[in-house]
Amino acid sequence: SIGWEADAAVKVKWLPSDDLPGAGPHDRYRMNWSNEFGIMQAGRALAPRLAKNADTLWTIQTRIAFLW
Questions:
Q1: What span, in angstroms and rounded, lies between the C-alpha atoms of 43 and 40?
Q2: Which of 3, 4, 20, 29 could form a disulfide with 42 if both were Cys (CB 3.0 to 4.6 A apart)?
Q3: Is the overall model pTM greater than 0.70, yes or no?
């Protein structure tokens, strides 16, 4: 077993615009923001590659994109 992972994200788009080239009906925004979180409980298959007692791994990241 390599373990399990759970991910969650919050995504927001604002400043609608109809003049973005090549944009589909759901992509006509000038600014995008996302905040993402992931957690993983490593299984026995990964244990030899991890530091001692480091079997719970997590990450958080945020992005802001300006489209033009």
A1: 9
A2: 3
A3: no
Structure tokens at 61: 């990241």
Amino acid at 11: K
Say how many residues make up the chain.
68
Tell me how far apart the alpha carbons of residues 40 and 31 are, in angstroms, rounded to a whole number.
30
Quote the tokens at residue 64: 């802001």
Residue keyed to tokens 């600014």: 31
With beta carbons less than 8 A apart as the criterion, state whether 11 and 32 touch.
yes
CA dihedral 29, 60, 48, 1 (to 10 degrees): -60
Mapping DSSP to helix (H, G, I), strand (E, B) and coil, where does residue 48 land?
helix
Residue 47: strand, helix, or coil: helix
Which amino acid appears at position 65 of this protein? A
Query: What distance in Å separates the CA atoms of residue 43 and residue 16, rounded to the nearest whole number?
Result: 44
